Backbone:
């Protein structure tokens, strides 16, 4: 059955179009603009804006979290540490009640390095139930070890390669083992030889310099241990790397909760009680941080031409990381980007076309003929008022309209 959305304001992932009609044919967008054919289901979107499905470029997720994300119009999550690699997500790919997912698998880190301190002694995660093979745990202390893990990560289905460049100082565990420059350099070079995108977890200025010096493709955190300098902004910009600031997690690390977001009835109506409690809490490990410095760094990077991507670092299980919730925190991050000085349209690009382009997701992130019908319809105009992204009227994943009761049931089965 074909569906025509008419009278919509259309943000195509880059700009607002003059067209007001989008035709869906099963899982794909058949046409943008033109006449409405006969014998199609017609949805009048007057007063609403149609957006590409949102992309969260930094999560740690499972099936229930993917369902929760979709409820908020997030149709794709990019996992930065976890088990949702290619062999483990066949069911997800075909399940239109959850967001789609891509994954780094597990990041390269030394034995005992971050994030080992966050888990019980001897913890070793297994793959999702009924899936195989077991995840590769790429513990590396030498250049040779890091390079040798790359083909194993590729073979076991990592979509991109992550490096952990973290001594634990921001998380309240200073002195953790950390990749040295030579090991980081060797791992990044090996990943590039395999044609893989590389990303780095880097929360400090020094870790950022190390990562950019190694030739990393993207930073999936923004430094929070001090204000930016002209030197570090120029260094990142010249490298061509993108940045996923995850302002929401930096705020949580500083003790800033998501209470204001939780107080929004548009959020409260869609979050289970345990996620509401998590959103109202914080991680609070770095109270000396300054959120104003983080926002100023975001603006400086954007002004320097660096691609900014929306990401949250939302995790599971609740209450693993306070101040965050899958799906809802994407909207909070959009608000932070606008607070930093991006125009609403620029913030929306950071959650749609830009992450799709930088992660090679050529079938989504935009509204154009032939692409996936991953769509979010919201009342109002988020291209001028960013908080309107929460005015959800409808969500489609591969052309299938989401029924909120299905999401609620899935979220309840964590």
Residues:
């Amino acid at each position: 059955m074909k569906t025509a959305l008419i009278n919509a304001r259309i943000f195509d992932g880059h700009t607002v179009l003059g067209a007001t009609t989008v035709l869906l044919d099963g899982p794909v967008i058949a046409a943008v603009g033109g006449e409405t054919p006969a014998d199609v289901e017609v949805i009048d979107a007057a007063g609403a804006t149609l957006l590409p499905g949102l992309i969260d470029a930094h999560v740690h997720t499972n099936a229930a979290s993917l369902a929760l994300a979709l409820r908020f119009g997030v149709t794709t999550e990019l996992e930065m540490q976890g088990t949702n690699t290619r062999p483990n997500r066949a069911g997800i790919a075909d399940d239109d009640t959850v967001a789609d997912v891509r994954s780094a698998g597990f990041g390269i880190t030394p034995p005992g390095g971050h994030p080992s301190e966050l888990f019980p002694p001897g913890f070793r995660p297994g793959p999702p139930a009924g899936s195989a093979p077991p995840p590769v745990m790429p513990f590396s202390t030498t250049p040779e070890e890091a390079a040798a893990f790359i083909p194993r990560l590729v073979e076991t289905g990592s979509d991109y390669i992550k490096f952990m460049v973290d001594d634990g100082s921001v998380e309240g565990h200073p002195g953790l083992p950390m990749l040295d420059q030579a090991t980081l350099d060797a791992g990044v070079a090996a990943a590039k030889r395999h044609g893989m995108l590389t990303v780095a977890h880097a929360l400090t200025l020094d870790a950022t310099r190390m990562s950019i010096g190694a030739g990393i493709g993207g930073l999936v955190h923004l430094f929070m241990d001090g204000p930016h300098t002209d030197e570090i902004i120029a260094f990142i910009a010249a490298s061509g790397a993108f940045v996923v600031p995850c302002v929401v997690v930096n705020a949580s690390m500083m003790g800033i909760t998501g209470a204001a977001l939780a107080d929004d009835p548009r959020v409260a109506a869609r979050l289970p009680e345990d996620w509401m409690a998590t959103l109202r809490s914080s991680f609070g490990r770095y109270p000396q941080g300054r959120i104003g410095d983080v926002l100023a760094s975001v603006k400086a990077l954007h002004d320097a031409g660096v691609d900014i991507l929306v990401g949250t670092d939302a995790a599971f299980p609740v209450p693993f990381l306070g101040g965050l919730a899958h799906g809802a925190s994407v909207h909070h991050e959009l608000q932070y980007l606008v607070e930093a000085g991006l125009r609403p349209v620029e913030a929306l690009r950071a959650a749609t076309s830009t992450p799709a382009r930088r992660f090679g997701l050529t079938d989504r992130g935009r509204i154009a003929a032939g692409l996936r019908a991953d769509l979010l319809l919201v009342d109002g105009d988020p291209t001028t008022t960013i908080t309107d992204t929460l005015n959800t009227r409808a969500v489609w994943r591969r052309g299938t309209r989401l029924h909120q009761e299905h999401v609620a049931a899935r979220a309840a089965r964590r």
The first strand starts at residue 2 and ends at 6.
